[in-house]
Amino acid sequence: MTILLQRRKRRENPEISKGTDHLPHHEERTMRSFKAGVICIVSCLTAAPAFADDVSISAALGFESRYVFRGVQYAETSIQPSVTISKDGFHVGAWFNLPIG
Q1: Which residues contact 59 (CB under 8 A, 6 or more apart)?
Q2: Contact residues for 15 (Cβ-Cβ < 8 A; gap 6+)
Q3: Which of 23, 29, 48, 93 could staple 84 via S-S, CB 3.0–4.6 A?
Q4: Where are the beta strands (DSSP E) in 1-101?
Q5: What values do phi and psi take at 27, rounded to 5?
Q6: Residue 27 falls within a domain, yes or no?
Q7: Considering the domain boundaries, does residue 9 fall inside one?
Q8: Is there a contact between 16 and 10 (Cβ–Cβ < 8 Å)?
Q9: What domain range is 71 assigned to?
């Protein structure tokens, strides 16, 4: 029901962006995602010394001028942190897109 109302609003008012900025509580969800991402990265990096030598942990932090997914722009500027943990050819990773602008 909510999606239909949002589509109707978009048709009636084409100035509404097609991103997620018009959704209710967008900023609150963005901040929650940002906090979750930071906590995940910090906890993975602080746990690194507890692993054996054959485990490798890598982290990356990217800064992007815009975030586009399937042809729709969702954010202007964003930070994209990622963490990968590898052991014996098995890899586990996490990637986040955190809009900041």
Answers
A1: 41, 44, 45, 81, 82, 83, 84
A2: none
A3: 93
A4: 55-64, 67-69, 72-75, 78-87, 90-95, 98-99
A5: -65, -40
A6: yes
A7: no
A8: yes
A9: 21-99
Residue carrying structure tokens 């054959």: 54
CB atoms within 10 A of CB 99: 21
Q: What is the pTM of this model?
A: 0.43
Domains of the chain: total: 1
> What is the C-alpha end-to-end distance of the chain, expressed in Å?
29
13 occurs within a structural domain: no
pLDDT tens digits, 24-49:
555 666 666 777 777 767 676 665 55
What gap in Å lies between CA 78 and CA 27, rounded to an integer? 13
| Spatial separation of the C-alpha atoms in residues 46 and 50, rounded to whole Å | 8
Long-range pairs of 91-100 with CB within 8 A, sequence gap ≥ 24: 94/40, 96/33, 96/36, 96/37, 96/40, 97/64, 97/67, 98/30, 98/33, 98/34, 98/37, 99/30, 99/67, 99/74, 99/75
